[in-house]
Every structure is written in structure tokens, then in C-alpha cells.
Amino acid sequence: MEIAGPTALWSRPDTGDSPTSYPAPTYSAVKGLFESVLWGPDVWVIPQKVELCRSIQYHSYATNYGGPIRKSTSVKSGNNYQLFVCSSRSWWMSATASMGS
Q1: How far apart are CA 60 and CA 74, in angstroms?
Q2: 28, 95 in Cβ contact below 8 A?
Q3: Rounded to 5 degrees, what angle do the CA atoms 10, 28, 8 make?
Q4: What stretches of the chain adopt beta strand conformation (E)?
């Protein structure tokens, strides 16, 4: 399967509230990608290989976060919560998995 996109965030759990991306997707992320397309009650997926088809480029940006973990009173009063993110840009990968039932 080949997958491409303008931005990817394979977030590292140790980066806390400023997400930083791994250079490549994790095992569970690749498995989830395959299972979202090839799901069935008797199908199992084991990722075998990931090839990055472009060089890795990172970009950082800040955004005003107004998501579900913020208190509604903070959002209504105009308090900003900026989220700083470092993600990979213009990525393209090829993944291979074993499948069976």
C-alpha cells in the first residue's frame, strides 16, 4: 500500500503538550492504516516493512487550541492556549504487511 500526504504527525508520547513527530509511522500506526482498509472479523494484519519514499522534512507551527480538554469558560473569555507542533511534511511511504484469516 502506498500512502502520501501534505503533513503527518506520528506523535511521540514523551513530548507532552508540544507534539513532535517520529520520522516514520510506528508499528501500531501502520497496522491501523491497513486495518482501516482491510478490516474483517477473521482478518489479521502483521506489518512487515515500511519504506520512506521521500526525504524527511520537518516543519513547526503554532495553533490556538480550542479543543475538548479546555474549559468552556476559558474559551469564552478569550484566553489563548497555543499548541506548538513539529510534524513531518510532504511525506510518502510504501508499507507491506502479511495478512491471513
Answers
A1: 25
A2: no
A3: 20
A4: 2-8, 44-52, 57-64, 82-100
d(CA 7, CA 84): 15
Residues ≥6 apart with Cβ < 8 Å to 93: 2, 3, 4, 24, 25, 50, 51, 52, 53
Looking at residue 88, its pLDDT comes to 78
0.85 exceeded by the pTM?
Answer: no
Helix (H), strand (E) at residue 53: none
Give strand pairing partners of 63. 83
pLDDT of 52 > 80? The answer is yes
The answer to whether 56 and 89 have CB atoms below 8 angstroms apart is no
